[in-house]
Write a structure and sequence with these properties.
By secondary structure, the chain is of the alpha/beta class. The protein folds into four domains: 158 residues, ATPase, nucleotide binding domain (Nucleotidyltransferase, domain 5, 2-Layer Sandwich), CATH 3.30.420.40; 38 residues, no CATH class; 99 residues, 2-Layer Sandwich (Nucleotidyltransferase, domain 5); 118 residues, no CATH class. The protein is built from 13 helices and 21 strands. Strands 1, 2, 3, 4, 12 and 13 form a six-stranded mixed sheet that branches. The longest helix is centred in the first third of the chain and has 20 residues.
Length: 464
């Protein structure tokens, strides 16, 4: 029976298996329409008819069907709630006993939407309060949403291997949450998702340890290795000692709840949000743009909320009485016509370009009201992510303290994950570990490869 390793990531999902007869790793094609078919973007688009599209097809369908349309919200009753509360005081004519309160639950639904795009599903595992979401009259639990991606993985693996695939080793971050109870619950939900997708034998491995296993399985000399796995949702760090033909000895692990999505949000705040009036005044008295409304611009998923009645009314008043009507008009169009996802695609593209170039531009002009051409330098980007940089530096200090090691004892730094390519983080690593050589492992494949090795039976001495 085939055994596969799966890296279900915040941004991408990939899968691989290890052929012991050939002593070779094989990556599985998960998205045949993607430029790299081995990478499946961890995105779902669910239509009103409950048809599910994944990966690149999900993105392209959303951009075609739901970007540029007018968002139209209507109130909709989704049920009733009954509460029973104790009666603390009673008038002469009031009945005795507890009070029963029944009230309707009303939500606002975008009735013009053709489908719903769901991104960064993995981050939902961090939130113990998030159980799932209603999508066009059907409630999907979080495990059900994740299972739709894992089902695609299993089916593509069976298609490629020509046999049933029911055994999987799944990657997981060092910490879904600093709270052990929440962390345990998150892994249980991921396990449930794998079961719903048809897997029978399910195991887990920490993602940086998997990346380390991939790097070390061909080593010929002993090394002290630091793994820096910086993906879309989390940063995971591992320090370990390795010897040829021996399982790695894990000395310490550290998770930092910062990822590429947070860097996109920081770039939005630092360089783009002002173009939509967030630094402008909203009335003749000079009142500033409300912070709670500004915060809705930090994630593309919350931008459509700006088109709800109370927010739209504020934006329109600001357009009439504020000091920047052009920016407020752009904000109204951004919200009403659902350009938030497209905007963040441009922001992410600029972030990636700044890893290889010292300056770039964020250009977006879908129509007259939105006409962005914002220059940005690498230095400005770095200034905009100082909070996230500080979190990373704090994590480095903590993992070294856990391992009871000095930075000078690290001989090799292995980096993986898309955000590890950002120059400021590479510079921090080189300065922190002056005696170490920097090895850029397969950006999107090293964790998956390590998971495939783990699934095949590779052992790890984990002391952390």
């Amino acid at each position: 029976m085939a055994k596969i390793g799966v890296d279900f990531g915040t941004t991408h999902t990939s899968a691989a298996y290890y052929n012991s007869k050939q002593s070779k790793l094989h990556f599985i094609d998960l998205d045949t329409v993607n430029s790299d078919p081995k990478l499946l973007r961890s995105m779902l688009y669910i239509t009103r008819e409950q048809e599910t599209l994944l990966g690149r097809e999900a993105v392209e369908t959303y951009l075609r069907e739901d970007t540029g349309r007018i968002a139209r919200y209507e109130e909709k009753m989704v049920g009733t709630i009954e509460n029973t509360v104790a009666q603390t005081q009673r008038g002469p004519t009031d009945p005795g006993g507890p009070i029963h309160i029944i009230y309707d639950v009303i939500i606002e639904e975008d009735v013009s939407a053709n489908g719903r795009l769901i991104q960064s599903i993995k981050t939902g595992l961090r939130d113990p309060e998030y159980t799932g979401t209603n999508i066009f009259d059907r409630f999907y639990t979080l495990p059900e949403l994740i299972s739709l991606i894992l089902l695609q993985v299993r089916q593509q693996a069976e298609k490629e291997l020509g046999e049933k695939v029911t055994t999987v080793t799944l990657g997981r971050p060092v910490d879904f949450s600093p709270d052990p109870a929440v962390d345990k619950m998150a892994q249980e939900k991921l396990h449930q998702a794998a079961e719903l997708a048809g897997f029978k034998e399910i195991s887990f491995e920490k993602e940086p340890i998997a990346a380390a296993l991939f790097y070390t399985h061909t080593l010929t000399e002993p090394e002290t290795v630091f793994v820096f796995d910086f993906g879309g949702g989390t940063l995971d760090m591992t320090i370990m000692e390795v010897e040829p033909n021996q399982p790695p000895k894990i000395l310490a692990t550290q998770g930092v709840l910062v990822g590429g999505d947070d860097l996109d949000s920081a770039l939005m705040q630092a360089k783009v949000a002002h173009a939509f009036g967030t630094t402008s005044t909203i009335d003749r008295d000079g009142a500033p743009f409300p912070l709670e409304v500004t915060n809705l611009l930090n994630r593309w998923q919350t931008i459509p909320s700006l088109s709800r009645a109370e927010n739209l009314s504020l934006i329109r008043r600001a357009r009439q009485y504020g000091n920047n009507p052009v920016a407020f008009h752009a904000l109204e169009v951004l919200a009403k016509q659902n350009y938030g996802f497209s905007l963040f695609q441009h922001i992410e593209q600029a972030k990636r370009q700044l890893s290889s170039e010292t300056d770039t531009r964020i250009v977006m002009n879908p129509e007259e009201a939105i006409n962005l051409d914002i220059p940005i330098t690498r230095r400005e980007f770095q200034a905009g992510i100082v909070t996230q940089v500080a979190q990373v530096q704090k994590g480095l200090t903590h993992v070294l303290r856990k391992a009871e090691m000095s930075p000078e004892t690290i001989s090799t730094i292995v980096t993986t994950g898309g955000s590890s390519l950002i120059p400021i983080f590479q510079m921090i690593l080189q300065r922190k570990f002056p005696n170490a050589r920097l090895v850029q492992s397969d950006t999107f494949g090293s964790v998956t490869a390590g998971l495939a090795l783990r699934a095949s039976g590779a052992q790890i001495d984990n002391k952390s």
